[in-house]
Structure formats: C-alpha cells, structure tokens
Structure of Aminopeptidase:
Amino acid sequence: MYERSFMEGTRGTQAVDWEERIDVKRLREERYEKALSRLQDSELGSMLLVSDPNIRYVTGLAMTGGSGADHYTLLTEDGDIVHWDTADHASNQRFNCPWLDDIRYACPGLGNVPRASGSDSARNWLKQKMANLVTEAMEEYGVHKEPVGLDVGNQGLISAFENNGVETRTEECVDLMHDARKIKTQDEIECLRMVAAICEAGFQKIKETARPGVKESEVWGHASKELWRHGAMVQGGYVTSGPNTWPKHQANTTDRQIRPGDIVYADFYNIGYLGYRSCYYRTFSMGEPTKAQKDAYETARDNLYDVLERIEPGATTDEICKGFPDMEGEHADWYGADEHWQMTTNHWAHGLGLQLYEVPLIWRGLSPDHPIEIEEGMTMAVETMEPADRQGVRVEEMVVVRENGVEILSQWPVEEITRIDY
C-alpha cells in the first residue's frame, strides 16, 4: 500500500492564501488540455459534448442534470469552446465564468422538452434546430468540413446533422473522452480525497444518531445534513438496517425502525465535491456484533484487501478480479444464479471521477474475457459484501493507483465493524 508522507492529505474545504490546496484553475485547465490533446490526435475536427460529466470536464461548468440536452458544448481542434445553455444559466455563466467567451442560448433537442411536447413534428424541429445551431458554430470556427464527435448515440440527432452535411462519430468521441478522463490529475485526486473525508463526517453522524427505535430515514437525514454542511452535493446514498441489509435493499432508505442486534450500513455513493463522486460503504452494529456478523465482516474485508493487494500499474483486470469470490463465495445458490454476470454490484471495483462509474471496471462477470491494463493515476472504489444470518455486511474503499500499489483515500476504520453502543 502507498504510504503518504507527512502533511500529505486532506486540507480544508475553503480557499486560503497561506497554503496550497485544490487549485481549481489548474483543475479546469489540465482537464481541458487533456481532452484537447486527445481531440488533436484524432481524425475529428471537433466534439459536441452532451453528457454532463464531459461538459464539466472540458468547461468547468457545474452541470446538474436539468431537463435533458438543454446544455451542450462544442470543443474544436484549435481549442475553441462554444457552450449552449438555458436562458438563465447562460446569462449567469456569461457573468460568472470569464474563462468561457462564447456562451449561447440552447435549443433543447433531446430529453424532457422534446418528450413533453407531445408532437413528433415538435421533436423533429427541436433536434434539427439544435443541429443547426451547432453547425453554424462549426462553420464560424472552420471545422464544419471535418467529422464531429458526439458523445451520445441519438439517431435522431445524428440524422439532423446529416441533413446539414455534417459527419458525426459517436464511438470515437466516447472512447476519446474515456481515455482523457481515466487518469486523474493531482487536483482530481485531492477532490476525491476531500469527498472521502466528508463521507467520514457522515459516518460519524450515523454513529451518533443510530439508536433502537430511530428510523433509517431519520439517521439518513442527519447524515445528509452533515454532508451538505461540509460542502458536498448529496445526489445519492442511503442507510439501511436489519433484514434490509441482505439482500441489499433497493438503494432506498426506508422508515424501518432500527432494533438491538441490527446491522446498519451506509452507502455514500454519488456524494460530490467539486463534482467528484464518492462510493464508500461502512458497516455498523447495534451493540456487540454476533459471531456470525464478525465472521462475515472478516470475510468481506479480507476479500476486499486481497483485491487491493493485486492492483498496481501494469496489472490486468482479468488477473485482479480473481481476488473477488468465486460463485460459491458469491452465494450464487441463494440467488439462483449460474454465472458471474448475474451478480452485478455485489463484488467489483469501478472507476471514480465526475461519474460514479468510470474506467476501470474489475469484475468476474466481465474482466476474464475483456481485460484492460491498470495505469498509475486511475481512481476507483472496491467493494465486497457477505451475508450474516438474516442480515449482511458491506465494506468499500476508495483508492488511487500509485507506482507501487494503491493509496487508500478512505480512512474510516475498516479492521472491525464499527460498534454503536446505546
């Protein structure tokens, strides 16, 4: 495991002039340069980005969903950026984002607006208008005669560009952005370190508020408030307890009352800091855990660390995934499953960044036949689980790949179940 040096680690969340922290200007510029470099090495003359994480990666704009393709960005091979957004957003961006000098009003060709129109003719008009706006900008910047990359495979939008004589390529654009984003910069890693620290404040709040008779939803409310208080954007996550811990509940916090002897676990996924997403499980016991609970937790933790020991630059995912349980260890009989692909989300590692799932994915359901190589600077979450009588435990670590192994960004104690005495 990678050992951090003295004073290397999470700093404060505020801006100060007396120590170096996350440099947001450098964060924006380095991401932009990586995407531009990939574009310039390709056969594309430009890319039209509709996916929110890709837009944020290139522009620094905090996309939060909206109503579909009411915001999109064109990046040209010469480094020019044109961004389209809704009236209010575009107006604010012109004032607040001086690093962008060409912000225009968007026509929403995809998503909720066309869907809600109730009219095929309206939907076709919106797509064509969106394509026309982008084509006009491509002509202004001299890239209209070259192929444009498109990061969404919407056939209607592709047809609208074809009507304008513009060649679109989706697969090349998607692969290009995946390649740009898979290796994290110094500041991206610090964002993930920061969101891990914020999640730990949430775990502490769970430890303080989970009691017999208290509802899961109440505990989650206290934890969510704590996450927001520290500057996170809470766009996912849940707390679950007792029989809801095995099989894993449907990613929902319920109104179930916590009882003595319960296992409680929290999944802080899609908790964002400057857009960078967490995925971080921890397990708690209401009082002294039973032998079955302790044994299950030890198995889950050991499986997790077996995988972590295998991760290093140059290792391939087909070899690493062997650290995860086989079908017997997956308790496939209980699920009535025959193959690993049926066990999605139970034991795997997935990339972290501006999205919850980025490159790489390490999973017995996929990696043996489709391996990729691990590279220094990749960031990921590694998660395992195990049943314990009529309940279950889960554990997860957030890591970054270093030259000699992994650095663990998550620091909530993992050796044992966190015991909550009431």
